[in-house]
Amino acid sequence: MKRKSAVLGLFVLLWAFGCRTKLEPEKFSFPLEEEAYFELEGSPVNFDNGICVTDKGWFVDALKEKLGKGKEPKIIKRSTPEEMPEVKGKIFEKTSEGKYSWFGTDQGFVYCFIGRKKLWERRIGGGVISPPAIYKNLLFITSLDGHIYCFKKRTGTLLWIKKLPGRGKYPPVVIDETIIAPSLSKKLVAFDKDGNKKGNFELRGELKFPVFIKDKKIIAVSYDWEKERTYVQILRKKIGLEITLSPEPPVKIGDPVEIKVETFGFNTPEISFYINGKLLSRGEELKTLWMAEKEGIHKLKVEAKEGEVIREKEEEIEVVDPQKELYKKLLQIRKNCHCKR
């Protein structure tokens, strides 16, 4: 049964890679969707370069779409924390850029050095055991107090602090202009450079290692404590669309209905609006108007197309005759009055 579960996971991954879209979005952003996943027996003991190994001997290479069972799991030895003069606490990992280096310590301090010279020191609310991330002139760092902090990397000016769903055990990562903040929880949270939340994605279990980024895809390893199962998930930018109707159904005959579309994962798609199978409009506009002329249930379909990628969604719009509705209300009032007599 356990082997069957692992083989099934391999089949799902192979199918997903074979059917994946050819569209490569220019910019990565939330929301996310799951492209494929592996379910492995046991708890994860190592994850490196897309390869995860469990204590039961199962391993998966997500990049090569390979799943199997080895004799002994290979565990990578982590370097021991170091100490430096003028630094309070132990350093686990650094992030460097030329002669500059940034790091946090287990005592809750953040530092910037140029060579051996300390440029600035800042105190934050919890210890740091993972390296910071850099985006342009910004520095992002997570701490064990469950927050992500944003500093100006050269001056140490604190710009914003945001709460995470769990302890900040893992390093933040930056894809394009999206800052992903992993934590010891089931959720991956994303922010923009100004600290505005862009969304979150719930994993199948509790995150157990730093996330791995490859070709604008996220590989995350999580663990379900109740099922004693390890999940290796491959996540990508969601490609799809959502429909908003104004006013919301039911609508009256003669009322104009505004149909708005929000797309995910497209750059400049062609949008087609259909009512009862007939084309209403087509182009790059993300909204259109429709006049309800006949009562009943009308079927709306919206299609977004870019290159070879097509996504569509359907909604039902109920249209009512206001005169008939008024007549029904009058009959009900008359009936209620007759019952009181």
Strands, helices and their partners?
Layout: H1 2-19, E1 32-41, E2 44-48, E3 51-54, E4 58-61, E5 66-69, E6 91-97, E7 100-105, E8 109-114, E9 117-123, E10 133-135, E11 138-143, E12 147-152, E13 158-163, E14 173-175, E15 178-181, E16 187-191, E17 197-202, E18 206-207, E19 212-214, E20 217-224, E21 229-237, E22 240-246, E23 251-252, E24 256-264, E25 270-275, E26 278-283, E27 287-291, E28 296-306, E29 309-320, H2 322-340
Parallel strand pairs: 23-29
Antiparallel strand pairs: 1-21, 2-3, 3-4, 4-5, 6-7, 7-8, 8-9, 10-11, 11-12, 12-13, 14-15, 15-16, 16-17, 18-20, 19-20, 20-21, 22-24, 24-27, 25-26, 25-28, 28-29
* CATH T-level fold name of the largest domain: Lipocalin
Please give the count of helices.
2
**CATH classification class of the largest domain:** Mainly Beta
Question: What would you report as the Rg, rounded to the nearest angstrom?
Answer: 27 Å
Task: Note down, in words, how this protein is organized.
The protein has two helices and 29 strands. The protein has 341 residues and is mainly beta. The chain has three domains: 1-72 and 206-238, no CATH class; 78-202, Lipocalin, CATH 2.40.128; 262-324, no CATH class. The strands form seven sheets. Strands 1, 18, 19, 20 and 21 form a five-stranded antiparallel β-sheet that branches. It is elongated. Mean pLDDT is 88; it is low at 7-25.
